[in-house]
Amino acid sequence: MRVLFWGTPEFAAAPLRALIGEGFDVAGVVTQPDKPQGRSRKMLAPPVKQIALEEKIPCFQPATPRDSDFGEMVSVMQPDISVVVAYGHILPKRIIDLPRLGTLNIHASLGALTLVEALTLISLDEATEAAQDESLVSYAPKVMREDARVDWALDAAEVSRTIRAYDPKPGAFTTRDGLDVKVYGPRVIEGAGGIANVTPGQVMSASEDVIVACGRGAIRISDVQPAGRSRMSAAEWARGRGISPGDILGR
Fold first, then answer.
1. Which domains does the chain have, with CATH numbers?
2. Less CB within 10 Å around the terminal CB: N or C of the chain?
């Protein structure tokens, strides 16, 4: 079975390595173009590309999968099946339908073992299909930048879920003095539901972690990434005078 693998970030690496390790014929890898990172703006290859280079697997990095020349190249490869794990672009229908066995879009949370088992069943023609209840179908809109903005007026549990939902990419963010700050590692502070005389977004503590008041309750933030800087612990941020008790986030 010739597999064409589509993926980009680190958590797409494990499924790719599993396919290679189990002996599947990974005929090619499609990933996003290299991007500049850090202060030096050095061009870095996606983790999936690095694996492809190590394993000497042909690697393709189209600016968009909708490019007609790229579509022709995929057709020439004649993959039996495409496997998509966090590639980063919506594939056009002609690309989805091109492999004779179709395209599998796998969420990384299912694990590499599930993917291997599914492809094994398909290769043995032992996979069974279950009709989807179309009345329950829903479409998730594309995540926009503003979707990841933290609304400190929500209760602590909702704020925590928002931050975790966008970790690691694109990263939930707030602002301090008008500059973006991404926030990570939230934990709801137990017993803080009744705090009073604080403004949502107000920094209550800035020592080991940063504790921020919400519309109801408070959360503890373990890591941050100020604009133009690398991810760091909240304690480092505080020590560098990036934040102090009484500051208001979201302004």
1. 2-135 (3.40.50.170), 145-239 (3.10.25.10)
2. C
